[in-house]
Amino acid sequence: MKIKLLKILTQSIFFITIFILLWYLRYPLHNFFNAVIFFQISPVTAIVSNFLQTALIAAAVLIIITLIFGRIFCGWICPYGTVMDIVSFFISIFKKNKETEPKRINFKYFLLLLLIVLSAFGLQMLWLFEPLTIFARGFYFTFYSAANNLSNDFFYYLMSNNPGRITEGIYQISKSIVIENRELFFNNSSSMLIFFILPLVMLLFKRRFWCRYVCPLGSILAVFSMKALFTRKSESCAGKCGQCKNLCRMNAIKDDNSYIKQECILCMDCIRETKCADRYKPEFSFRKPVICNLPKKDNSPKHKENGISRKEFLSWLTVSLGFIFFALKNKPAGKKSNIIRPPGILNENDFKQKCIRCGNCIKACVTNGLQPVMFESGIDGVWTPKLDAKTGYCEYECILCGQVCPTQAIKKMTVEKKMKTKIGVAKIQKDTCISWRDGLECLVCEEHCPIPSKAVKVKKEMINGEFVKVPYIDENLCIGCSICQNKCPVDEKKGIIVESL
Amino acid sequence: MIKNLNKIFLKRYSRKNFLKVLSFGLISLFLATGKSKELFAKTAKQLEPRKRRNIKTNYDLVTVHGENIEEMTKRIIDELGGIEKFIKKGDIVVVKPNIGWNRAPEYAANTNPFLVAAVVKLCLKAGAKKVKVFDNTCNEEKMCYKNSGIEKAVKEAGGDIFFPDRWKYYAADFKTPAQMQDFPIYSDAVNCDCFINIPIAKTHGHTKLTLSIKNLMGVCGGNRSTMHWDIDKKLPEVLSFIKPDLNIIDGYRILLRNGPRGGNLEDVKKASVLIASADAVLADAYASQTLYNINPENIGHIKEAAKSGLGSMNISKAKIKILKL
């Protein structure tokens, strides 16, 4: 009972900590206590980032913990697992938990292997299944933006109708430390939400469905937890009452009350509610398990169901081979994508390989200029960031996106280097620019241009029989920061448009 | 599961419960049909032009040359007649520096933080109840406030620096026909007892120079880029709306080229001068004449402002005091 409480306490502390880390991943960034460390703790990040040093150290810490305690990360720390536990708690009010003998639990190893093979062939798909990034995407682009915008709107109504002193005080505090003083907008956030919700819908059928059958992070940890020191010790009661089996949310306990060690996430369910006699009560310890009366292993077909049958294996293999073939054939190899990437991306293909789509750069961007793309950069570029001048621009002296990238897909740069990094080039649209078309002096683009000697220059030109000051671009100086397009006052089609290199 | 659902839906209701459900349903119907929008409707608040106190200063314009900005600020206001002339006890004061760009102070893109801090200190010493400092920035506001050094300086001086709130922009009602009619203007800039305008002298691609009149663009909201169309007519209108009590042009470092954003240290000149006047047009005319050697007749918005009687552009007629520290 005590250990169960301890587990719930630990889980909520980690959940709140991660919540705060993700919430405060924005401009005044703390050097160490930011969400980057949270993403780097996953070994998947280390694999994807070609074994980046900091990611490797963080992953090593997690693996050492796993070698001692087993999959304690999945049960006690993982924020997505916590969300699942909360959802299953509400489902369990209506639905009684009943478990059968473990089946198809090896699918996740198969999937992990497939994803690693794919990434070796140059098609990175690990990000689609990585639970930390799924959680972060759902958090950033749905929860955070909705919470921020709704509270902004709420305060808008509250404050514009003669607020009292207390409301004013609450507003001032939340404005300075909780919410951002702007409305956030993210493209394609609904597509990310679908992948966040889908595993939660599957909980209607099985508790921790995702962790049992799919999770690649879980399967990496499962491999390391096979020889973990911390084990479940139980006097074999040969599973007469079947309580433990039905309580286990991971379906790790078999009919004979023995358990599959790599499946156990130490949720402590079997300890809490088992009503069996003290002698049979299971406990977790570092001592060697004493299981007497272990039933003999038989080769009956029932036992084989723990793994996967030959038929299933072959069908999965065919499907995945077909997928690999399809994906690699449709991969736009070296195709020049016509979107503007954030600064610090040297090689487009290398970037797609390393990006885990955690959304850190998009959320942290101070102007809300970075947006996730859908298929603009090919099938392997889903949800990668692009600079969208409709919603924002690249702040000249800001290097935040490189600082928050956990895999260094966007390179960390010094401010001096970033100020010289070219990401696009601006082009004047002479048919829509109000100066070139109507001869009306405007020059907003020139005013905002951040280049010290101005990439948008001014000359006098004869327009409609009058000499007018008009802007033109020095393409050697322009770095493509898009502030000119963002601030251009022409409504329909902007008078200046930034194109990719 | 179905059994449980049946329990919920086939429960027999008491009158109390029935009324509860009915009222809940009616409220949600009310909200859904859009009637609620009338309740929460945004009332378009109108803003009237600021009423300026009638202040007579000892001189029309005072300039101070020197090195210590705090001392220069004190002297310049003393020469004008002392801070008490502008601020009464318990006043709410707005200090409007230029915090438009994300640049360090030495690039002369934003007002010198020492000057802002010195003015805030003087206001508080004179008994001001609250000193509000803000600007509608062009770059990201958090970065501008921090990197310009003004946020830190004002906080240390005891002033109240904040980011503008969206709901405090009210539609301006000019009373006379104006191009800027119904343009959103920050209400704090109007609902105050004293407005102190502290611009920095910079060049500008469009208006040639940005001085105290152009600095008032920072109290406007909405799509400010459209103000650039016919800006020479629009800026005097904003000036007539705000009517600052005191303008102190920061000429300690001035930007000679590539304004208003700057970025090259070669473009910055250390002129070490402050120009103060209760008349924004006169201050601008004097600054353009002495700092940049441009005849104010050639600067559209200054000429237009003088023409509409918002101030005098005639430097030779004005009573000017030049100080050297």
Sequence-ordered SSE layout with sheet pairings:
The complex is a heterodimer of chains A (501) and B (325).
Chain A: H1 2-23, H2 35-40, H3 43-48, H4 53-69, H5 72-77, H6 79-94, H7 107-120, H8 126-129, H9 131-160, H10 165-178, H11 189-201, H12 209-213, H13 216-225, E1 231-233, H14 243-247, H15 269-273, E2 283-285, H16 301-304, H17 310-330, H18 348-354, H19 360-364, E3 370-372, E4 385-387, H20 400-404, H21 415-418, E5 424-428, H22 434-438, H23 444-448, E6 456-463, E7 466-473, H24 483-487, E8 496-500
Antiparallel strand pairs in A: 1-2, 3-4, 5-8, 6-7
Helix pairs in contact in A: 4-13, 7-13, 9-11
Chain B: H1 2-9, H2 15-32, H3 36-39, E1 46-47, E2 61-65, H4 69-80, E3 92-97, H5 113-125, E4 130-133, H6 141-147, H7 150-157, E5 160-161, E6 169-172, E7 184-186, H8 187-190, E8 194-198, E9 202-204, E10 208-210, H9 212-215, H10 231-242, E11 246-255, E12 268-277, H11 280-291, H12 300-307, E13 320-324
Helix pairs in contact in B: 4-5, 5-7, 10-12
**Alpha-carbon Rg of chain B, integer:** 25 Å
CATH class term of the largest domain in chain B: Alpha Beta
Q: What is the helix fraction of residues of chain B, given as a range?
A: 25-40%
Mean pLDDT of chain B, nearest integer? 89
Biggest sheet of chain A, strands in spatial order? Answer: 1-2
Number of strands of chain B: 13
Globally, the shape of chain B reads elongated
By CATH, the architecture of the largest domain in chain B is named 3-Layer(aba) Sandwich
User: How would a textbook summarize the main sheet of chain B?
Assistant: 8 strands, mixed
The CATH superfamily of the largest domain in chain B is LarA, N-terminal domain
Task: Assign the structural class of chain A, choosing from mainly alpha, mainly beta, alpha/beta, alpha+beta, or little secondary structure.
Answer: mainly alpha
Essential attributes:
heterodimer; A: 501 residues; mainly alpha; Alpha-Beta Plaits; two-stranded antiparallel sheet; 24 helices; 8 strands; B: 325 residues; alpha/beta; Rossmann fold; three-stranded mixed sheet; 12 helices; 13 strands; 34% helix
